[in-house]
Amino acid sequence: MSPVGIGQKISWRVATVIDVVPETQRTRTLVLDVPDWPGHSAGQHVDVRLTSEDGYQAERSYSIASPPEDARLSLTVEQLKDGEVSPYLSEELRAGDTIELRGPIGGYFVWDIPVGGPLFLVAGGSGIVPLMAMLRHRNAALAKSGDARHMIPARLLYSSRRWDEVIYRDELARLAASDPTLEVVHTLTRDRPEGWTGFTRRIDREMLEEVAWPPSEQPRVFVCGPTPLVESAANALVEIGHQPALVKTERFGPTGGSV
Ligand SMILES: Cc1cc2nc3c(=O)[nH]c(=O)nc-3n(C[C@H](O)[C@H](O)[C@H](O)COP(=O)(O)OP(=O)(O)OC[C@H]3O[C@@H](n4cnc5c(N)ncnc54)[C@H](O)[C@@H]3O)c2cc1C
Question: What's the whole-model pTM score?
Answer without folding.
Answer: 0.94
